[in-house]
């Protein structure tokens, strides 16, 4: 096309800076093979540009196009407000040399490459968009940047190329609550923490949009601020008016940037094949070089050996931006279990350990006779010193009968157990050698039982957890298939399953070696893939300060265990059995007939057929649904009081039945015969939010709201001469909510030590705190805690056993009284939808892959996203406390035994109780700092006694 720019022309403006950062953060590290130059972002950027060119064809193809970049981080806005964007960290070291290469890539594609000192790329885009519109043409901005949405309308549109999403005035209004011409007013009020635009403190996007809608524009709002009824909002707008006006200057794009070129110079031209192929070959992008050469009918230049841009190409072609392997970190050699070796003599083992000393890194894994680290015996150890170079050291494989009853003989060809451990100990405890493990806590405990303290170490399971929480599991087999494309040898192939299952010590050496050594090889390869990605994912601090240091702390706690009085449990089991019989008699009387209370089918028939409760739903088996949710709904039915009472008693019966089977009966079988104590196991990566999970047995789910549940804690006792001490964070999640949602009334109540539930009830229902009806306080408490979990009116009605309309009225009133909570919820969900994750105050990322789902799962995904930053921050704080605790109490005759949600439980000599409480409380109340300075104090309640029940 010749001539100038005018009517009928279509200008595409590509946000080049956004392309660069999107490519950098979505792709793994990639270096040029010939000289080690980082080129991962260039690879992603180049593939995105190529994809854009290929797709920008047809009737609506651009006649003119340009790629716009930021010249530097300093612009005219820093003169207006020096702190503008000062919160942004400097560009990563490996990204800086790639900036000029992306400009070269743009020019190689024969696209206009624009940047101007003193202005942001967005300002240049705004100027070109205005000029094109005034000339009668159309404009499409290729970007998803919210700051550019103020330009949409009157012939200017946006396109998120990665999502193929067109952004018009309606989409802008959906995001900001106002049409594009009012976006800067909303942004000026809401501010932007990323760019350090101050805005109006405590006012978010939703509130800002409502204010602009009510008053028309920002200036009118500020002039009439004294009319606003809400005191805090009124004072904020009056006191921060100047700051808000400055914020508007910062967010308003400049559309008068002096340009030394005209729109006609941006005419689309085909790239020169030789220039483009030369650049791609110089970058060593083999895949794209061949694709472009084929397109032009040319022979691809001879590529430099070794480098590839397959990952970048696949991502730019529309694959999800999942992490891929660094081609430099993981060799092309496939995993070959047949190549692994078995070590049966000290000389060979010494040679392997010498290689570990030389490289400073070794992957290690143990094979044992079972999964209980406190009772399983060590069978063998595997090592890997390089990808593909792995070995297995069998130590206790036997043949014949069971060792317990005789007949078992040690298989020939194995090292002496003690000799091997002595040699391994020299490496496993060497500070100069990094040990790599997958779920290292298990191996740490196994080695600790043999007198070996493994340090320092990395854990690939925890690396995965830090980076990919919420996306998938973190077991080795799943990670191997996901990131190495390799399915490990199944353990069932070796030990079988069911009644015929054998222990690993009975596995033949020729089969054990490839299986065991493969685990070490895979672990090392995963580590080489994951380690560089931690900083890219911005979770290095989370991994280094919250995940890895917790391993030895938990291991020591688990090995310590807690003393349990089995006679107390036995008596409780008898009491529960009698209580169940009594409840069954009452239930049968209400039903008018005997039936099996534990049978959901028979219970359903009684409720819906005999007693005539409406709304019964049958499943595929033909039986009525009688889950807890169904029964809880029935308990609220005023016109079916008999059925309501029956349902209530069945719920009680089920709770007692569970307490009996899960705790008072089962706990007696979990007492370790060697220690006389119960040793739970904590899963660090079990919950997406960072909460620890307790298993074998689960000590975190013992109910505390019922008298029966609380009594179970009587069985957890201190040895003679010692006490159990409990330190429990007081309402930590509500405190975090008050901080992140900026709730002045709640924060002040916490500071003054006021009963927060009574205060909430007083605020909502207008009743005095003094002499408050306990039922009203209970309702407020249910709402306070329910809101954290995104509770609905339906859920609250179940909890309080009140009509749904009444429960919804409570929630509506709550949000009216504490509008900051609704703002927090809306902004958190919006952030999750935009970024695919939410984040805690300490940087923990919880991915939310279902946040944009439709249908029944949508509500759950939103509630999970709202709750995760609150629950996750509480989990982070207690982790920080646990990690600091061993050093704080090292000189005391005390040890930490259990962690149960927000509570830490200790065993301490009687004379040191007060000293322990003071030391532990100091650690716990200061655990957030210095990383986070909360705007209200953390408070820890302490108790002591002969049992856990007395202490809590």
From TrEMBL:
Source species: Rhodobacter aestuarii
Region feature (Disordered): 298-330
Biased composition (Low complexity): 306-320
Domain named Exonuclease: residues: 360-536
Classification via CDD domains: DNA_pol_A_pol_I_C, DNA_polA_I_Ecoli_like_exo, H3TH_53EXO, PIN_53EXO
GO MF annotations, alphabetized: 3'-5' exonuclease activity; 5'-3' exonuclease activity; DNA binding; DNA-directed DNA polymerase activity
SUPFAM superfamilies to which the protein is assigned, alphabetical: 5' to 3' exonuclease, C-terminal subdomain (SSF47807), DNA/RNA polymerases (SSF56672), PIN domain-like (SSF88723), Ribonuclease H-like (SSF53098)
Protein name: DNA polymerase I
Domain named DNA-directed DNA polymerase family A palm: residues: 709-912
5'-3' exonuclease domain span: 6-269
């Amino acid at each position: 096309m010749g001539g100038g720019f005018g009517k009928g022309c279509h200008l595409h403006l590509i946000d080049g800076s956004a392309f660069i950062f999107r490519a950098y953060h979505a792709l793994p590290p990639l270096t040029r093979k010939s000289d080690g130059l980082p080129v991962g972002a260039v690879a992603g950027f180049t593939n995105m540009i190529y994809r854009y060119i290929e797709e920008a064809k047809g009737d609506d193809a651009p006649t003119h196009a340009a790629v716009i970049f930021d010249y530097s981080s300093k612009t005219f806005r820093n003169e207006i407000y020096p702190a503008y964007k000062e919160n942004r960290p400097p560009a990563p070291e490996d990204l800086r040399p790639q900036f000029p290469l992306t400009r070269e890539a743009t020019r190689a594609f024969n696209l206009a490459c624009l940047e101007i000192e003193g202005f942001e790329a967005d300002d240049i885009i705004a100027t070109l968009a205005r000029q094109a519109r005034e000339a009668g043409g159309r404009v499409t901005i290729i970007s998803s940047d919210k700051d550019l949405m103020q330009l949409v309308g009157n012939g200017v549109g946006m396109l998120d190329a990665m999502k193929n999403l067109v952004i018009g005035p309606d989409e802008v209004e959906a995001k900001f609550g106002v049409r594009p011409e009012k976006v800067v007013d909303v942004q000026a009020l809401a501010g932007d923490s990323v760019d350090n635009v101050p805005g109006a403190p405590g006012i978010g996007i939703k509130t800002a949009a409502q204010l602009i809608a009510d008053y028309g524009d920002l200036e009118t709002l500020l002039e009439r601020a004294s009319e606003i009824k809400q005191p805090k909002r009124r004072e904020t707008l009056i006191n921060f008016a100047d700051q808000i006006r400055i914020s508007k200057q910062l967010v308003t794009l400049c559309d008068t940037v002096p340009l030394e070129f005209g729109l006609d110079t941006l005419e689309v031209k085909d790239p020169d094949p030789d220039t483009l192929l030369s650049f791609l070959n110089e970058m060593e992008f083999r895949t794209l070089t061949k694709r472009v050469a084929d397109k032009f009918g040319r022979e691809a230049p001879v590529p430099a050996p070794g480098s590839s841009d397959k990952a970048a190409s696949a991502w730019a072609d529309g694959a999800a931006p999942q992490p891929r392997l660094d081609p430099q970190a993981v060799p092309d050699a496939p995993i070959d279990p047949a190549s692994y070796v078995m070590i049966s003599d000290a000389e060979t083992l010494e040679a392997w350990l010498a290689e570990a000393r030389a490289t400073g890194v070794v992957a290690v894994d143990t094979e044992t006779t079972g999964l209980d680290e406190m009772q399983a015996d060590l069978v063998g150890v595997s090592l890997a010193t390089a990808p593909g170079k792995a070995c297995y050291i069998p130590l206790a494989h036997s043949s014949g009968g069971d060792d317990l009853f005789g007949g078992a003989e040690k298989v020939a060809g194995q090292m002496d157990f003690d000799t091997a451990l002595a040699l391994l100990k020299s490496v496993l405890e060497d500070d100069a050698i990094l040990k790599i493990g997958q779920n290292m806590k298990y191996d740490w405990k196994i080695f600790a039982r043999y007198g070996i303290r493994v340090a320092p170490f990395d854990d690939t399971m925890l690396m995965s957890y830090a980076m990919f929480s919420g996306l998938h599991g973190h077991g080795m087999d799943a990670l191997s298939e996901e990131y190495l494309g390799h399915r490990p040898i199944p353990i069932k192939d070796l030990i079988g399953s069911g009644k015929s299952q054998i222990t690993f010590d009975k596995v033949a050496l020729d089969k054990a070696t490839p299986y065991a050594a493969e685990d070490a090889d895979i672990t090392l390869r995963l580590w080489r893939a994951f380690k560089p990605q931690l900083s890219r994912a911005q979770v290095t601090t989370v991994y280094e300060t919250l995940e890895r240091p917790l391993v030895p702390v938990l291991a020591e706690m688990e090995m310590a265990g807690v003393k349990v009085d089995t006679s107390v449990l036995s008596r409780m089991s008898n009491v529960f059995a009698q209580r169940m019989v009594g409840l069954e008699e009452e239930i049968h009387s209400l039903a008018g007939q005997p039936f099996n209370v534990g049978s959901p089918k028979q219970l359903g028939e009684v409720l819906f057929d005999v007693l005539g409760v409406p709304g019964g739903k049958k499943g595929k088996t033909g039986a009525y649904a009688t889950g807890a949710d169904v029964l809880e709904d029935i308990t609220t039915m005023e016109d079916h009081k008999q059925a309501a009472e029956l349902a209530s008693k069945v719920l009680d019966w089920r709770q007692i039945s569970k307490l009996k089977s899960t705790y008072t009966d089962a706990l007696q079988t979990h007492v370790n015969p060697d220690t006389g104590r119960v040793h739970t196991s904590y899963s660090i990566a079990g919950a997406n939010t960072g909460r620890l999970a307790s298993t074998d047995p689960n000590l975190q789910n013992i109910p505390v709201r019922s008298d029966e549940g609380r009594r179970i804690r009587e069985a957890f006792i201190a040895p003679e001469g010692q006490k159990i001490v409990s330190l429990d964070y007081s309402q930590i999640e509500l405190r975090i909510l008050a901080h992140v949602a900026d709730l002045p009334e709640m924060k002040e109540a916490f500071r003054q030590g006021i009963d927060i539930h009574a205060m909430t009830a007083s605020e909502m229902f207008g009743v005095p705190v003094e002499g408050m009806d306990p039922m009203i306080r209970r309702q407020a408490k249910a709402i306070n805690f329910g809101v954290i979990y995104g509770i609905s009116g339906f859920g609250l009605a179940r909890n309080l056993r009140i009509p749904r309309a009444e429960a919804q009225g409570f929630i509506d009133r709550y949000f009216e009284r504490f509008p900051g909570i609704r703002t927090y919820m809306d902004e958190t969900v919006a952030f999750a939808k935009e970024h695919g994750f939410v984040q805690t105050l300490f940087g923990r990322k919880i991915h939310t892959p279902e946040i944009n789902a439709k249908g029944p799962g949508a509500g759950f995904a939103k509630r999970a996203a709202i709750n995760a930053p609150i629950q996750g921050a509480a989990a982070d704080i207690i982790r920080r406390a646990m990690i600091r605790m061993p050093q704080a109490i090292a000189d005391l005759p005390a040890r930490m035994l259990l962690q149960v949600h927000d509570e830490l439980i200790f065993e301490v000599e009687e004379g040191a109780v007060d000293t322990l409480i003071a030391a532990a409380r100091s650690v716990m109340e200061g655990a957030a700092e210095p990383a986070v300075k909360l705007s209200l104090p953390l408070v820890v309640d302490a108790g002591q006694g002969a049992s856990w029940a007395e202490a809590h």
